[in-house]
Every structure is written in structure tokens, then in C-alpha cells.
Amino acid sequence: TKINKLEFTHFLKHYQNNRKELEKVLDHYSCSKTDSLKYKAAVFLIENMPKQYSYSGSFIEKFKIELNKHMELSFLSRKVIEILPFRYIDITSLLQYEHDIEIVKSDFLIYYIDYAFKLLGENPWLNQISFEDFCDYILPYRISHEALDQGWKDSLRQPLEGSLKEIIVFHDDKKYSSFHWSRNLGLMFDLHYASKDFNIANIHFERFECQNSSLAKLFFYRAIGVPAALEYIPAWANSNGHHYWVTIIDPRLRDVKFEEIVERKAPKIYRRTYSYNEIPISTKKEYIPDIFREPFYRDVTTNYMNTSDVNIEIDNLLQIKNDYGYLAVFNDLILRPVCWGKIENKKICFKNMGRDIVYFPIYYQNNEIHNMDYPFILYANGTTRKIIPDLTQKQRIYLKRKYPINSEKTVYGKKLIGGYFECSNDVSFKNATIVHHVVENPNLMCTKVPVCVHGKFRFWRFRNDRSADIAEISFFAKQQEIKGKVLTNDTLMYNLCDNNPLTYSSVRNVVVFDMGQPVSVTEIRYLPRNDANGIYPNNEYELFYYGIKGWESLGVKVANDDYIVFDSVPLNSLLWLHNRTTGREERIFTYEDGQQRFW
Length: 599
Fold this sequence. Notes:
Elements: H1 5-12, H2 19-28, H3 36-47, E1 53-56, H4 58-68, H5 75-83, H6 89-92, E2 96-99, H7 100-103, H8 106-122, H9 131-137, H10 152-157, H11 161-169, H12 178-204, H13 210-224, E3 228-233, E4 243-248, H14 260-263, E5 270-272, E6 297-299, E7 307-313, E8 324-331, E9 334-342, E10 347-354, E11 357-365, E12 368-371, E13 376-378, E14 384-386, E15 390-399, H15 410-414, E16 420-424, E17 433-437, E18 447-450, E19 457-477, E20 480-482, E21 485-486, E22 505-519, E23 523-528, E24 540-547, E25 550-558, E26 564-571, E27 575-579, E28 588-592, E29 595-598
Antiparallel strand pairs: 1-2, 3-4, 3-5, 5-6, 7-10, 8-9, 8-11, 11-12, 11-13, 13-14, 15-26, 16-17, 16-19, 18-23, 19-20, 19-22, 19-23, 21-22, 24-25, 24-27, 27-28, 28-29
Helix pairs in contact: 2-3, 2-8, 3-8, 5-13, 12-13
């Protein structure tokens, strides 16, 4: 059914400068009953066009000149690289907007509508796609805020036309599944674009991280006719950073899961669409965070995980005049908002929140974050607990890390298992004495081994049947370090003795230390390759707890061991250990049963 002509005429009157071009598109598809779906597609594009735009300005022109110097880049990589500057607000603040609805021409829209319906007729995996998904994930003429380009889909598809037809013939039932079809296309994408172009882009522009590589794949899928969308986690809840990836829309599958969420925690997952989604619009001109200003992100968190609705009641003593409040997570040392909710009668409901996460209820005043209430834990079973520090009861806590151990990094210590330390006065280690066997994974921690052998020995070594990455090996005599010389021509082996936990050496089978003369060693310390997020002597640390006014300091200390102790820490506190000397990876934690529990 066609949209009410009177309503649409009222809509178009707001865009008089370009109204004739838009009406040409509607008139074009009004001539034949067979074009009724194309007419609806045209209405869809135009109705959701007002907030679609490109950037322009002198910076963009200079950037394109620089880009044109690299003729070896494919058309696809150029499309993605052109978007890179738009990620930085200090650049976009200098640019001008070119709104699509004010400049787009009728032949431009007609081209893309006809192209999309051509794909719909030719690609068997689109046989069962809904019209709504077709409009959002096949039809659109743009992906992000790239410059308008009438030929980009043809330019990407034509070089692969022969290969596409050949593959379709041999895939029987799978050719009716966009998910299965995307796997074959993914191999084609890697072969024709990713392996070569991404390396060139990394060298000359910036690292082709998840957002850039996902945009490239999305351009590719849209041109071929695979319904796909960009998914977005604005901030991980238990580690730094954010993440983008491409998901395939397939009516034969309920969900296509994203494995990385098993290891990391996602508070929210959004999907970029062409159609509008609800956004906060304040009548009081209050500050709205950037990530919620564009209406093109749809909440799809429930597609990936179990979620809970969270209700917040605002204390009557807190005079909040805003229309909206937010839930934030601790990410990269600051609070980052991930969800918004409307304040109604001193209450807010936040829908579909990821579980097993600590959330901070906040609001904005003068563009700055303010606490709405104490943080709370949304547990995996859906229950919640508010974290209110008990200032009347204090405890002593022992801290060994400022960031949780990632499971991928435990392999460093695992490779040490089976190795052993031994000593001898003969460089060939005849009649050597074994002083320690590594029997368990040190898990990124420094292991201190008391040496209980009689006599003095000049040569000491670590031996293993396989290669292992080791950050530090040191020898002590009654707390006094003994410096030895590493017997090797590999300069990287000196990383073993540089007191820097971030540098390491790959020890292949054996590494030998010459002390210069026989010495009596009372302790050996070894540290596997690690993330430098433990506690290290001479580093300065500050501990914070979270109160109603935000982070409150519990003091500063310099570590003299591989752990650090703080006294007078309020019970039931949300804590943060900050290394004032070096590093950036730090996580919030609670202290439960004498141990840190990171969130």
C-alpha cells in the first residue's frame, strides 16, 4: 500500500530546494503497478534521509589528494580510507555538512533502487528476506557518512561477476542462505582485497582495526547483495575499548552469535540501520552524549545474550531537572555511557541491559558527568546489588594486580611448565644440580623460588623442552640481586635482565647465566611474558573507592614487593587501583573473601 500522498506532500514541503528531484523519483515509480514495491522503497529512502549527510571542507580535499598518491589501493579500500578522518571530533568540527535530502538527485536514487531490486531478483539467498530487512540492509546507497557515489556498488561487483555466477551453480541448498553464502564471499573478499589492501592502508594511513575492516566488508557485502549490518559495542564492560563487526541477516537463522562476548562482557550492542530509531530529544537543551545523537543505531542486545530491565529511583534530595539519565561502565579509566533512559516521576527504566556487569547511574550537567546514585552490580541471574561503601567498618586488603588476567595470556606461563633451573661450575653442565622444577602455571605472576643447595656455583641456567616467552629471570643472595651475564649472541636475551616486565625473550630450550665466579644463590625469581598489570617494586600506586560524589582516594603507596597492602578500606566498596608510574590497563574490583574480584 502506498503511503498517504497528503502526508508525504506535507513531509516534502520542508525541503523545497530539492523537492522537485525527490518527487521525480516518486512519479517515476507511480507509472506502473509492477513498481509498487519500488515506490515503497523510494518512500523509505526519502523518509529516513533528513539526518543522512556527507562531510565537505578543505581538509577532505587535501586528504583525497594524499589518498590519490597511492594508486595501488583498490576502489574498496579508498572508500573506507575516505571515512577515517570522520572518527575524530577535532577534524569533523572543522568540516561542513552536506545533507542528502537537500542535494540528492532523482537519477541517483532511481539508480540505487533499480540496482537493489536487480539483486533481489538475481540472488537466491534473498528469496525469503522481509521487505523491511531488504530496505535496511540491501537498498541503502550509503554505509556511513562517505561522499555520495553513484557507481560504488557496480565498481565493487563487476570484477567478481564471473566468479559469483560460477559459485552459485555448485552450492545447491546453501545458496538460499545469506549466512552460508557470506562465508564463500568472505574468502573472496580476503583474496581480492583484505590481504593486500589492508597492509598498504596500515603503512600509509592508520591501522585497519575492527571498525575499518568491518566497514570494508560491509561495503563489499552490500554491493554483492548480501544483507548485512554493522554491529557495535560502544564500550566493553570488563576491559578497555569498544568493538565493531559485521553480522549477516538471514531469515533461516534466529541469531548468529559473536564468540568474543564469551570472554568479554558487553553492556549494550547496537546495529547501524538506515531507518530511524528512537533517540533522546530534550526540551531543556540538556547535553546528549555523541553516541546517542544519531538515530541510526538500533538496540539488538537481546539477539546475543540474556538481559534484564533495570529500574532506578532518584533520591528526592537530588534535584535533577534533566529529561534523561544514563547507565555508564568503567572503560579506559573513565565512565562511558552505554544506554539512555527517560526520567519520569523520579524513575528511569533501562531496557535490555547486559548482565554480570557493574553499572554507574549518571546524568549530565554543564556537559559533565554527575552521579545519580551509587553504582550497582547486575548479576548473571538478573538480580542487582547496590555498592554502598560502609565507612564505619574498615579492612586491610592485599592487592596483586590492577587488571584481570586474560585467558589468552595464561598460555605464556603454561609453556614454562616442565622446565627447570639448575646450576654447575662447568659451562657444559656436567654433574649439574637441579634446584627447581616448574610444575604449575605462574599465571603472569612473579614466582620466587628458595634455593636449598650447598656450595657456590658459577653457571646457572633455565632449561625447557619447548620454546617459552620469559620476561625476567633474576638471582638473589639474601635479598641482594646478583647480576650475571647471559651467554648468548641473541641481543633480545638481555630482556631477561632489564627489570622491564613488558619486554621478554623467547627462550628456545635453554638460557645460561655466567656469574663470573662461583656464587651462593638463595632465591631465584622468574616472570613469564606478561601484561605488566601486576604489582612491581618502585611503582607508585593510588587506591580509590567509589562514593556518592565519585572516586575518593585512600592514599598513595610505593610498592616494594609483588603485592601491595592498603589499610582502612571501607567494607563493601567498589575499588580502583591506579598505577601512577606507568601503564593504562586498569579495572574496577570488589574485595571478596580476601581476594580481588574484577568487574
